[in-house]
Structure formats: C-alpha cells, structure tokens
Recover the amino acids of this structure.
C-alpha cells in the first residue's frame, strides 16, 4: 500500500524532498535562515508565480502550452494602474481584468481547437498582443495610489508575533486548494488528463474535447489575470516591461513539480513546490551575498535538467516493467 | 489557382507583397536607394541587412522543426557566442592576442557545443524538445554573464575592431556583407537539403518518427545534426549582432529572437509539428517580419507598438493558413481538394 503510494507519487515526493534538502542546507549554512518569516516570505514573494503556474499546469497536462501568461500579468498591472489612475472603482477594475484574461484565453483556445493553430504560435500571438497593448496604454511606468489596493498590499495577516502573510498568499493557497480538487475529483479535471494522455481516444470516448481544450486555456488566462492582480498588489505599479520571461519560470516550475510536457501527467501541488524551490534558491543566493542574481537562472536550469532526466529514467523503468510483465504473460500462455 | 494557393511559398510571398504595396502607397521614399560613399542606402537595403541574423536562425530552426522538434535556446546561444567573440577580441579572456580568427572560431565552436548539448538531450536522453532547449535558454544568459563577468563588453578600443565590425555592418561591392553571408549559407543548406537524402530523411522523421526508424533511418543522429546546425546558425547570428553594435550585451543580445525565428518558420507555412518544410519560405517569412518592423519605423509609429502589429499579423497569417478557417469564412472556394478530404476524414473520425 505504502509502496504503491510512493510509486505513484514518486516525482512529487522527489520535488518535496529537494525543497526540504535545500531548506535544511540553507538553514545550516546561513545564520537567520531558520526564521519563520524567511519561510513565509517564499510564499509572499512568489504568490503571483504560484497562481500563474497553477493555470500553466492545467494547459501542460492537457498537452498544450501557453506562453502568453507573462504578458497577461504585465497587461493586467498596466491596465489596472491606468484605470485606477482615472478613478475607476477598484472592484470593477479587478473583475474586468479577470474577465479580459479569461476571454483572451478563450479566444486563444478557440483558435487552437477550431482553426488548428499550433498552441505555441497562438499563444505567442497573445503574448505580442498583450505586450503591445501595454505600450499603447503607456510606455512609462504608472504607479497605483488607490487606497483599496494599498490597503490590500500592506495588510498583514498575523499568524504569530513577528510572523505574517499577505492577502495574496491566501489567494494563492486557495487557488492551489481549489484547483487540486478540481483536477482530482471533477469531470473537468479528469477529462483534462484524458485529453493530455491521448486526444484522439478522448474524442472517440465521447469526451467534449473542444469544451475542455478551450476551457483549459480560458482557465490559464484567468489564472494569469489573477496573478497579474496579485502582482499589482506586490509592486503597486504597472510597467510594460514587467515579467518578461515569466512564462518560462512557470513552465520550469511545473516541470520541476513533475508535470510532463507531453501531457497527461502532473499535479498542481507539484508546481507549487516547483515555484517554492526557485524561491528558495533565490533566497539562498541573497543570503550568500556576493553572488549575482543570474546564478539563480543557472541553478534553476541545472535543476530543470536534473528533473527531466529523472523523469525519463522513471518513465523508461516503467516501460521496462511493463515489457517484463508482457513477456511473463506470454510465457505463461505458451506453457 | 489551387496549385498556387497550395504552394508553401504562396502565403508568405503574398504577405510580403502586400506589405511592399502598402509601403509603396503610404510610406514616402520607401523604395528609394541612394549611393553614399559607394554604399547602397535605403529602406530596402536596411531590411536586407537587418534581416541577416534572423534569416540564419530561421534556417536552422526550420530544420529542427522539420524533425518535429523546436529550439528555444537560440537567443541564449546568440548571447554566448557574442560574449565569447567580443571578450577574445578585447583580450579579456584567454591568451589569443586579440586574434579575429580565434574569436570567430571559438564563438562558432561554442554554438556547435550548445547544439550538441541540445541534440544529445533530445535525441539520446529523449527529453521533449521544448524542455530540453528550455534548460539552455534559462542557463545560457547566465553562462554568457560568466564569460563577460557580468559586464557589457564594448570593443571600441580593441585593435581588430574594424575587421570585426565589417562582418556585421560592412559593405562589399556596395551591398551589406551580412547579405553575402546569408546567401552563402542559404545556398549551402539548400544544396545539402535538396541534393542529398538529408532533406528527405528529415521530412520522413518529422512525419513519423517510428516508421522512419523502422525504415532504417538513423533518427537519433539526424536529430542531433539538426540541433547542431541550429546552434551553429545561432552562433553565427550572435557574431553578426555583436559586431553590428561593436559589443556584447548578455542581457539583451538576441532577446526573444527565438520567438521571431519560430514565427518566421510558421509564416513560411511550415507545420510546427514537423514533416514537409521549405527553407526558402522560412527566409521569406523573416523578410516579412523585418519588412514589418522597418515599415513601423518608417511610418514614425512608436517602436514599442511593433509587438501589437506583429500579433495582428501572426493572427491574420495563421488564420489564413488554416483550412478550417478558410472554409468557414470563404466557403469551399479557397480550400484545396486534398485538405477538404482530409478534414472530412477528420470530422468522420471525431463524430
């Protein structure tokens, strides 16, 4: 039984172990690392990335890819900053951002499914489009001075004395919880896995391929827009060059968390730990003091490499086991 | 008409011609070419000169995509090769006496090595191409920063700066030297693809990996070769880019150029799923992108808006290339018979 659970969740267990190892290594090496707030800051600083990675995980599991998310985040920040400056109601601005993000994802999904445009190209178009609109709004950085936004940004939820998380963290964790349940226990979630496993057989089984495929991109757009709102709490400004390359961070997180880019395999929790691992590498580099920030990229790339190779090994072993079983069955039959 | 529409070159050429017609009507002096100090100057020459790095990348990318792969690390390889070349010319690393030959050779070798790395991950370890090249894409700029020690290397005062500058920005017989490089590489690759079995093998393994393997094609080796070619092209493009600005900027050199290269391949009508491909139409695709950029500059629109224009063009071209879309909008008129049969079959399968 325990063996079964271990085998089934091997790659996510490796991810969590790696996170713990990095954390312990950091704690042993640097003074002050074992502060609860250092740990909580991993969530505070990466809440937006967790949310974006959640949406990305769905798309990757369905066998697609969405490289528009970084631009969506930048667009939402820019768009909200601009409207808030003009005195719009903050709640309306947030809702409008979510609607636009979801609708944008829907359109991309529609193009991908009905017009056979490759996901990479369709979302590339989305990336350019959102980034372009950012510059149409303004080429300068706009700061957000709206009291509601400032309040949410500065509000600290005290867990204990000298320990707090921001509202963004609660939003991120809620998203992870809800999407985990959706992915595991709802029809939609199971169908996403089925389509990622084999789209044609999913279609032949009578699953609503069109609805799910488009839904996945709409969900990713929604998550990216929500991530954008959370990011605008984090920076309280909008700027057209923000979050260039965020989509690659999100994809890297998902892969480190055990999602296969060929589709059909992956979990939201894994992606969250993928984000946290990137966060902890960053923290270690900050604590170390004299390494530049681009070392983070090199370290993340090394981890990425490690994980994909590991996944390949697991996969190859799985195939070997299957083959052995088949051979055994054959010999039994021939006897 | 049908044959024309079905040709891979048709849509990218149409897009290019439309852009040129637009420019003829709305942009002043777009086609005027002047001779200043024996060099040709003008928007058209500018397009040819600036398209060079992208055209090189797109050629390599076409081969990779033909096998069903993708190489998103080329932008980082551009940064690495530029960093190596400039550091050597400036005498910052190694003991090469600011030698131009050493700089070029080592920069190109670095590209080959990056290609081998990508190729091994994809062909031998069997990692999905996007992830495999994502590793180098993420790490590459860091590696380039390691080479330049985090600085922007400028070579203005290096002894061989003029020779190096000539590669990317010089003129031979009044025409930009970079254009000659692209033409030579293009002829060489076309020869390689058309006159040897290489091209055929690529199309075969892009269409069906497994049956190609069963037919005796050495799939792994071929895949590896395409990534090595792509890495080499990226290194060459890196040299052109860094020589054009007389320096290596690890953060911005070739940033997002991989997206443009992939876009060019897609505009060229090549399927990103692999199979049939055409190098020439990819190069026409790069011309479309560069022409678009130059048009935006010539019109005096803020340059940042270029990405908006690009997005609209991608969407338009993708939709026009999609048979389903043409059928939905124009009816049966514009759809070739073959693809109609195909989509009918598809429909039958799904229902």
């Amino acid at each position: 039984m325990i063996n079964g659970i271990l085998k089934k969740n091997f790659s996510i267990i490796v991810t969590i172990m790696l996170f713990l190892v990095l954390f312990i290594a950091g704690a042993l090496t640097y003074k002050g690392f074992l502060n609860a707030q250092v740990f909580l800051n991993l969530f505070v600083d990466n809440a937006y990335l967790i949310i974006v990675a959640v949406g990305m995980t769905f798309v990757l599991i369905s066998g697609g890819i969405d490289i528009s998310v970084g631009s969506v985040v930048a667009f939402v920040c820019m768009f909200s900053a601009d409207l808030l400056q003009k005195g719009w109601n903050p709640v309306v601005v947030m809702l409008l951002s979510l609607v636009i993000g979801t609708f944008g994802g829907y359109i991309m999904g529609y193009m991908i499914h009905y017009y056979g445009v490759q996901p990479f190209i369709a979302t590339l178009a989305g990336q350019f489009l959102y980034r372009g609109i950012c510059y149409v709004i303004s080429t300068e950085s706009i700061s957000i001075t709206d009291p509601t936004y400032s309040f949410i940004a500065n509000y600290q939820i005290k867990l204990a004395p000298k320990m707090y998380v921001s509202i963004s963290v609660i939003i991120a964790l809620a998203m992870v919880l809800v999407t985990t349940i959706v992915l595991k226990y709802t029809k939609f979630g199971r169908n996403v896995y089925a389509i990622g496993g084999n789209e044609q057989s999913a279609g032949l089984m009578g699953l609503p391929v069109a609805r799910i495929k488009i839904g996945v991109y709409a969900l990713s757009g929604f998550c990216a827009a929500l991530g954008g709102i959370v990011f605008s709490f984090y920076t309280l400004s909008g700027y057209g060059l923000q979050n260039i390359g965020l989509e690659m961070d999100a994809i890297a997180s998902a892969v480190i968390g055990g999602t296969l880019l060929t589709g059909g395999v992956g979990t939201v929790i894994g992606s969250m730990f993928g984000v946290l691992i990137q966060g902890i590498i960053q923290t270690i580099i900050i604590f170390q003091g004299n390494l530049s920030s681009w070392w983070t990229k090199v370290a993340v790339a090394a981890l990425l490499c490690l994980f994909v190779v590991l996944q390949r090994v697991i996969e190859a072993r799985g195939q070997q086991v299957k083959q052995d079983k088949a051979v055994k069955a054959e010999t039994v039959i021939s006897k | 008409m049908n044959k024309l529409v079905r040709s891979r070159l048709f849509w990218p050429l149409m897009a290019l011609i439309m852009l040129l017609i637009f420019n003829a009507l709305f942009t002043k002096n777009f086609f005027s070419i002047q001779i200043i100090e024996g060099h040709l100057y003008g928007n058209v020459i500018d397009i040819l000169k600036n398209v060079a790095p992208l055209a090189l990348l797109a050629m390599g990318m076409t081969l990779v995509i033909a096998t069903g792969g993708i190489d998103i690390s080329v932008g980082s390889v551009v940064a690495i090769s530029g960093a190596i070349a400039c550091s050597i010319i400036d005498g910052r690393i190694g003991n090469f006496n600011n030698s131009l030959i050493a700089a070029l050779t080592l920069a190109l070798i670095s590209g080959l090595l990056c290609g081998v790395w990508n190729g091994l991950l994809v062909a031998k370890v069997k990692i999905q191409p996007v992830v495999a090249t994502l590793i180098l894409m993420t790490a590459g700029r860091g590696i380039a920063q390691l080479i330049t020690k985090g600085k922007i290397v400028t070579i203005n005062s290096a002894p061989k700066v003029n020779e190096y500058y000539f590669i990317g920005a010089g003129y031979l017989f009044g025409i930009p030297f970079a254009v000659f490089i692209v033409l030579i590489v293009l002829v060489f690759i076309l020869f390689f693809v058309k006159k040897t079995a290489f091209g055929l093998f690529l199309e075969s393994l892009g269409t069906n990996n497994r049956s190609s393997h069963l037919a005796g094609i050495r799939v792994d080796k071929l895949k590896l070769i395409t990534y090595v070619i792509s890495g080499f092209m990226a290194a060459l493009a890196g040299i052109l880019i860094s020589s054009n600005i007389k320096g290596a900027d690890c953060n911005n050199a070739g940033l997002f150029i991989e997206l443009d290269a992939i876009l060019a391949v897609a505009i060229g009508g090549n399927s990103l799923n692999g199979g049939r491909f055409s190098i020439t139409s990819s190069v026409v695709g790069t011309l479309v992108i560069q022409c678009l950029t130059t048009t935006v500059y010539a019109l005096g629109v803020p340059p940042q808006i270029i990405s908006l224009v690009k997005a609209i063009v991608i969407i338009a071209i993708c939709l026009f290339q999609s048979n389903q879309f043409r059928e939905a909008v124009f009816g049966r008129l514009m759809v070739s018979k073959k693809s109609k049969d195909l989509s009918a079959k598809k429909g039958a399968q799904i229902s």
